[in-house]
Amino acid sequence: MRAVDIILKKRDGGTLTLDEVRFFVAGVTDGTLPDYQASALLMAIVLRGMTAEETARLTDAMVHSGERVDLADIPGVKVDKHSTGGVGDKTSLILAPLAAACGVPVPMMSGRGLGHTGGTLDKLEAIPGFRVDLSLTEMKAALARVGCAMIGQTAQIAPADKKLYALRDVTGTVESIPLISASIMSKKIAEGIDGLVLDVKTGSGAFMKTEADSRRLAESLVSIGNASGVRTEAVISAMDSPLGRAVGNALEVIECLEVLKGGGPSDLIEVSVELTSRMLVLGRAAADRVDAQQRVRGAIASGAGLERFRQIVQHQGGDPHVVDDYRRLPAAPERYLVTAPATGYLARLDAELVGRASVALGAGRDRVEDVVDPAVGIVVIVKPGDPGDPGDPGDYVQAGDPILELHYRDRARLDRALPLATRSIAVSDARPAPRPLLVGEVH
Amino acid sequence: MRAVDIILKKRDGGTLTLDEVRFFVAGVTDGTLPDYQASALLMAIVLRGMTAEETARLTDAMVHSGERVDLADIPGVKVDKHSTGGVGDKTSLILAPLAAACGVPVPMMSGRGLGHTGGTLDKLEAIPGFRVDLSLTEMKAALARVGCAMIGQTAQIAPADKKLYALRDVTGTVESIPLISASIMSKKIAEGIDGLVLDVKTGSGAFMKTEADSRRLAESLVSIGNASGVRTEAVISAMDSPLGRAVGNALEVIECLEVLKGGGPSDLIEVSVELTSRMLVLGRAAADRVDAQQRVRGAIASGAGLERFRQIVQHQGGDPHVVDDYRRLPAAPERYLVTAPATGYLARLDAELVGRASVALGAGRDRVEDVVDPAVGIVVIVKPGDPGDPGDPGDYVQAGDPILELHYRDRARLDRALPLATRSIAVSDARPAPRPLLVGEVH
Predict the structure, then answer these.
(1) Which residues pair with residue A197 across a beta bridge?
(2) Phi and psi at residue B178, in whole multiples of 5°?
């Protein structure tokens, strides 16, 4: 088999066989396939596409580039969640302890933030001492002990993905539903889970800007998961504005603790409960979605979720007292308020621009090697579509009203963040039409 | 400027600016652009195409990756010919001396054979002592002395093309009219010529299999040439069967000498006279095509073309006595006849398969580093559409009649060539419809 023949086949719109896909993935993994051939094939895949079967073959080959973890000795139906990435998208820290508290083991492998979206590992590491680099043995011990492990991807998991992703990033071949699907699902399938709930984001702050593209991605992901023996379903949720009010690692941890304590913003509660409920049904810890929602809300009300969060933190070496004392989390020394440029309804608070402003402050990374500042970030004071409490004008603002509170450390970084933060805000005379948060599902 | 942004633009169907194209070509030339980015962009160009203006920009950037030769101190209108490549396609050795004999200086830079097609340099090197590696100074001296130089591409000519071609060859990005056009025309424009006649081949043995594709390529090439100040026109000629009867380097030299002596196969004469006549008109050595054809046929009849060939050989260090004594050319020790599998009309003699059989015998190269055997090759005994002389059945053959004579040195190579040679022949009950040799022109 010659690499150039595989490239020619895909270039001319052909369908690659399992052997051809394996040859490609194995060559990428062991370095025998030159990068220039891999990138030519990647571009041909971006422009010619892949059938559902081909995408499943690619996923399978990527799973087999490493180990598929065996969690058979952990009792229960193991369920994970994956989000395609958003701004203020912190549901993992809420749903993992809640699902575990309701009896579903959650072996969660997450990533770091890149670009304008945040990453679960960065958020967890805002908790002093928290270790995300557990070995597989330690992960199993954590699952057995506290019903949940929240860790980074180990080197054994789909190593082809890491190499391919690095190449895609510099060759303009990221935006491809088959390639995105294989990248996400190969890692999830290799984790050894039985069930998976996907949160496919849609909107200006999401990778997929349109609902149609998000649905296509969701369908692709669900189809691959189910074909690989992982019961998979997807929620499509809006990501036009940040989810919740906190953007930035320590700020988001606090917001998650607020939700686990029965407070927090309504949109974050809604998405978290929806995703956790689906995890309970997949994990056979609830009879149906209605039963599951009651159990999840019960685990919030009883404090069982909060208690489980404390146990997870303690088990993974973090400071469990952060749960009660937020002063133990890193905090930025300075604040800056970004205000409404006019009087009217807050029509838009662009998630991508808020995310980029937060990265500019130091909360995320533009390049893999950048160091994250856990303390900095942005608090959203007014959100579009905010109904307002009695006596509170909601999303109707006066010129000069604070909209965003920037938590910063470095003046130069603030200067870089401000134009982005300012551009994220749009005020309009007309009240924006309400848009549902949960816009679809695929199963 | 970032390479990935240029890739993304082309991936999404955008039109690259001159600066973007220059950034790409300069990066390829000086090695600052990684191959994996270059190949991703090449694949995006193959699948998204380039406008005529973009292709002209790419050509210009490739010309400027090296030197544009200045031939202003050579009197006369300098004209070259380029063929897109065929099997038995040996017209350069006929038309260069004929055009020079008719007063048109011919500074010809040619390539080597690759794949199933032959190359002019390999044919010239079948002549003992012939040097194709003249410096630019030696080339100018040859032009001044004998009105013609036939050499290889020097390192100063479009160095970007050499790197890009090597990359295209292994990344499935050869088949693209913009990339082919820029590759061909950048080298020709950099030669310093005033006029160019293109022989764009079409058919099973050509790079472009359909007349429509060949016409699109011809139009692209002619448009670039004229935009760069090189008066350019193209002939589209059939390449379903080998041109002439000889395939293989020394065998083809002999056939060219036969044409220059007033003999040779009619199809080879027809194409050679057509191309030379156009060179004479472009070179202002004839009033029009009718006048030009008379002058060219006159240069054959008078022996002026043959005499010029002898001078070129002598000037470039070759043995001029080969013109009179073919025994001075290398000859293969063994012969093998491939015969008709049935009685009927020879319906097809597939040029690509004959070319590949000849390469298998050692006359060409599958890889750039292969060594060519000048002696081996194939003589076509019967051609499809051969009208036959009085009393000669032409292309009607009896089962067992010889069709191809394989000139070989090595038995193992013969064994590799035979299946290809056998498959090249198809005999049919119906006489094949005649197909014209010259199927179109673009100017």
Answers:
(1) A81, A233
(2) -60, -45
Q: Count Cα neighbours of B293 within 13 Å in the Cβ-side half-sphere.
A: 7
B388 Cβ contact list (under 8 Å, min separation 6): B394, B395, B396
Give catalytic status of residue B176 as yes or no. no
User: What DSSP character marks residue B376?
Assistant: -
The Cα diameter of chain B in Å comes to 72
Q: Residue A346: what are its φ and ψ, rounded to 5°?
A: -75, 100
Tell me which of A8, A48, A171 to substitute to probe the interface with B (most B C-beta atoms closer than 10 Å). A171
d(CA B297, CA B283): 17
Q: How far is A433 from chain B (nearest CA, A)?
A: 32
State residue A112's pLDDT score. 84
Q: Do A43 and B8 touch (CB under 8 A)?
A: no
Mean pLDDT taken over chain A = 94
Distance between CA atoms of A438 and A244, rounded to whole angstroms? 14
pLDDT, mean of residues B110-122 = 86
Inter-chain residue contact B40 with A173, CB threshold 8 Å:
yes
Q: Do B170 and A37 touch (CB under 8 A)?
A: yes
- C-beta of residue B120 within 8 angstroms of C-beta of residue B92: yes
- Tell me the pLDDT tens digit for each residue of A57-76: 999 999 999 999 999 999 99
State pTM to two decimals.
Answer: 0.85
A389 pLDDT higher than 70: no
- State the pLDDT at residue A194: 97
| Model ipTM over 0.85 | no
| Identity of the residue numbered A2 | R
Residue B82 phi/psi, 5° resolution? Answer: -135, 135
Which of B3, B69, B60, B67 is CA-nearest to residue B31?
A: B3
User: Comparing C-alpha atoms, which of B335, B325, B259 is closest to residue B88?
Assistant: B259
* 3-state SS class at B318: coil
Instruction: Give the side-chain half-sphere CA count within 13 A for B413.
Output: 23
Catalytic residues of A: 82, 161, 168, 183, 187
Interchain proximity A37–B11, CB inside 8 Å: no
Which residues of chain B does A7 touch, with a Cβ-Cβ cutoff of 8 Å?
43, 171-172
* pLDDT, tens digit (0-9, with 9 covering 90-100), for B17-38: 999 999 999 999 999 999 999 9
User: Are A172 and B8 within 8 A, CB to CB?
Assistant: yes
Looking at B22, B82, B245, B310, which residue is catalytic?
A: B82
Rounded to the nearest angstrom, the minimum Cα separation between B44 and chain A is: 6
pLDDT for B389: 63
| Range B389-399 average pLDDT | 78
The whole-angstrom distance between residue A49's C-alpha and the CA centroid of its chain comes to 25
Q: Nearest-CA neighbor of B335 among B417, B274, B431?
A: B417
Q: What is the mean pLDDT of residues A101-118?
A: 90
Distance from the A136 Cα atom to the nearest Cα atom in chain B, whole angstroms: 34
Count the residues in chain A: 443
Judged by DSSP in three states, B396 sits in strand
List of chain A residues whose C-beta atoms are within 8 Å of the C-beta of residue B4? 169-172
- Residue A102 in contact with residue A299, Cβ under 8 Å? yes
Other Cβ atoms closer than 10 A to B107: 25
Sole residue written with tokens 């929240």: A150
Chain-chain contact of A47 with B170 (C-beta, under 8 angstroms): no
Of B161, B267, B373, B395, which one is the catalytic site residue? B161
CA distance B276 to B296: 7
Average pLDDT, chain B: 94
Residue listed under structure tokens 């990647």: A42
Phi and psi, residue A167, nearest 5°: -70, -40
Closest chain A residue by Cα to residue B9: A172
Look at residue B396 in the predicted model and tell me its pLDDT: 92
Higher pLDDT, A432 or A148: A148
Mutant choice from A39, A47, A164 vs B, greatest count of B C-beta within 10 A: A39
Q: How confident is the model at residue A390 (pLDDT cuts 50, 70, 90)?
A: low
